[in-house]
Amino acid sequence: MDARAMRFEDEKRRIIESCFSKKDVDGSLLETYITHVRITEYSSYPTSPPPPQARGQNAEKPRVIIVAVRKSGRVRMHKSKENTNGTFSIGKTWNLDDLTTVESFTGPTATAQNREWAGDTGFTVTIGKPYFWNAQSDKEKKFFIASLIKIFGKYTGGRTPELTGFDQRELDQVLVEDEESRPGLGPMIKSKKSKGEIAGAFWKAASAANAFKPRPGGAGERLRLAATKSSEDGSDGITGVFQPPPRPKSSDAEKAQVAEPAPAAEAVPPLPEVKITVPNSSRPASLQPSIKEVKPAEIEAAKTDDAMRKDDPRKFVIAGNDARYLATLGVDPSIMNNKSSEFTKWLDFFGWVPGQQMRSRHMDELRIDVDRELNKAQAGGWLARFKEDDDRVDGIKRGIDTAIAECEELDNLLTLYSVELSTLSDDIAYIEAQGQGLQVQTANQKTLRKELESLLETTAITSNDLGALRGAPLENLNGLEDIERALVTLYKAMMKIDPTLGGDQSRKSNDGGIDNDQSLGLDNSDYGKMRIVQEKKQMYMQESSLFMRRLVEYMARQFQEATSETSRQLGEALSRKVDSHHHDAGRDLLWKYSPLILYARDVDLKNWDRLLQLYQDLNHPVYKREFQQIMTAWKKNARKMSSDETSELLFTSHAEKKEEGIATTARKLTVKRSQTLAKSLRSPLDGSRSNLKSSEGQSLPYETFGSVLDDILPLVEMEQNFIVDFFHATTLDQSDFPDAVAAFRPKDRQGGDLRRHRLMEPDRDLARRVTKAMEVIFVFMENELSGLVQWVLTVDNLQGVGVLAAMERKMAEISQTNQDFLNTLLQKLHSTLEGRFKKFVDEQIRAIEETKVKINKRKGVISFIRIFPNFSTAVENILNGVDKNLNIRGTVDREYDRILKSMFDSLKIIARENPAVAVNTGASADSEDKEALNFHILLIENANHFLEEVDARGLEVLEEWRANATAELDEHMQLYIGAVMRRPLGKLLEYLENIEAQLASGKPGTSIAAQPSNSRGVFNKVVGNYDAKEVRKGIETLRKRVEKHFGDADDPALSRNLVTKVLKECEKFYGDVELRISRVTADVYNGDTLFEWPRAEVKSGFSGLGK
Questions:
Q1: What is the pTM for the complete model shown?
Q2: Are residues 125 and 34 part of one domain?
Q3: Residue 126 is part of which domain span?
């Protein structure tokens, strides 16, 4: 099976499962699929070929045309579309009786424009009105049209729709396809079969003719009479056998002689046997010939045996010798059986006599003699036999003439048989038509009976039968059951009269228990014009309206009682902890009335909406009091935070002062408090909630917000689920009112799991009605949550990150559910807060950019460098445990990058605003240039503080900025070391730099040593000045200076670590000086020097680092 056939079969299976699987009460299908074709129709050109510009994704509508037959025999054509889940839905239906014309656009009668626009795949079907459809291929178009013609002809008794616009080739293909599908002799005659198969088919048909009695005067009767007459006359020319006389025996002389014919026993010599046989594979067993055919080869063999028995006895000896000779030659002796004597005679004839004569002959001579004799026999043998056996030749001639005559008679019989078969075909068609008519009549009678029974059942309901609707008590379980039974009766009667009352047409049209032909109801059929139907409809609507008025009044009291019970449960609760079971008490009073609400939705949508409005208005104050109590309780439990605790977390709280007047001790204490607070900020978003009764009784503001959401959002979701279930405000539940009544008795009815997330409602109008009810009940919720957000931000703006994370976690949980109200509310709050957070970061960046630092006096770590580690620690502790896929993670990372870029740009701006620093930054800078030195100190302190205090936590953005800080630290550390080393090692460094510069320029070491200022003696003098005492003194001075520069930072631990880090770089510099001296000694002075660098003093001078 090719791909197209597999696709067609898959579509057929899904179409049957979706549209033709409904069964009647007796188990038979209500409608049976016949065929289908995929087409495309165009919204702007539904009746004619569309121009190219009118085609496109928005204009094209893919559809499937289906032909099916109802159980009643009515053939219909459906237009359906394929749904996203692979099922099919029927959108329009026509009766095939209305088909009048099928038009193609390939013929000469079509206009050139239509021929171009329609192509080979477009066609128009007129069924009531014209519809232009475009098939997927030319082959599918012709196959569907041919099938449609065949089905239409079968259904209408041979009629054919008008076919226009076809070119001759396409029309022939369509009609041929139609003919090939018809039953009868056509396929048997047209198909290419062997003669044996055709003869076998005739034999079977002839044998089957005896199995029934044909109609009087018909072809079958005439055939029977002809067969009887033929049997009386003897042989019928087909199965008769003529026995010829026995053939005369010929002698066994060396040369063949023809024996004289025996005297004829009869006046007319008998004819040779002439037979017409039929292949056994197709001929009936009862007609097989009983006389065994004797083949000429068998007769000749028998004659040869007789002759050999009369032969000379010596033949046995000769045969024995031949056998021995053959065995000697390795030839199977059996090949000479019964032929040894004849073989010996022929050898003698050709001169192959034993002795000298045989030895003188050659094998080629024997071959030539044998060929010559064979040629003679072929040339004259047959003519001689014909002349000598003239009696037999005459017999054969007479037999041939008889056979020809029999064949001519057989041809006449076959012609007659073909004509009679055509007559039989008409008889069969007549019988089939009668049977189909009886079938249709029976089906119509059954349909009529069903309709009459339905009409009788519908109109037999009296006002007394519905008395429970007016008098039975709704508050009593027995009364409620009586009311529901009466309502079921009323509901079914009203649906039979007018199914559109239910409002859900898709469900009712696909209801397997209702005939689709009756889906429009009695009101829209001929029965609807009957006076009794109109009177009953009016009476039923009146009874329904009276009951609905009673139901609305009663349910208003029940809703009030339910809300009172819920309020009582909330007031009597011993624990302040939120418990959704308090609301179950009120809902348990209502569940038993759920089927009545479904009746209201299906029959009286206006009163159903009124019931929902009563419910929502009564529940609004209950939830408002409860939610306010929940928020108040959590806010009381929140931790009180002072401005001092949060000041060191924000850049806006620490703008640098122009004058240093703040006490260092106070600033250090504030730093400690802020670090403690940053580390104490923890995330409540790991699923655990702080309890109001906990021993600590403290929670941070953003934790309080998250706890409030955890408490109230489940209550909101459960309330919406209750509205959907109790008021049946969904199209996902396909049960109707009788099903709901039959499911449970009133005392056993209870709700499902209201905590379970529900799927999104496909009917958006119905979803908006539910959302409207939620907005009425929780109209206060947006303001309350906005106020809570403002309370959190008032305490600490930074904790808005935690609020955003809490919202996003809840939004992720309900994004794919039916909670449209909560989704909209949270998205609105989130959008507002996200904007405020961005504005908050903008303020922090502005504070960073406005920070001014005067570097004529060293001030240590700049405020924004000192604040950022606490800032990031606080934020990351808030986000600890938050799903990294939430948007808050990306939002915070982007804001980190903005803040850090502003911080490091501000440091560069400080460098540009100080001319002294900009000039004296080289390795030969003045060691006493305090401004330049302070600049390096400032950058080293800030970069080191950033690296020591900022924990990247695996975040890419923080890792990148730590790498930038490391590069800044390394650069300015080298500049600082180069400056401070001038004081203890200035002259030595100048001497080494001079020689190294000449060596780098390519000057030979001998030339440098020959210079007076760089002679060996000068070198020894310069280096000799740095003996152990001088080096030890210089290192001590250097240590004090480094400790003065870096030992007075805000954090003593960080100061000690930085001093140690700088002194290690100094020790490394001393080691590099020793290596430089060694290289100069080797390259310039041939390794001959009187001075040795005091390595031990250097090591001793820098010992104890890090302690």
A1: 0.56
A2: yes
A3: 3-175
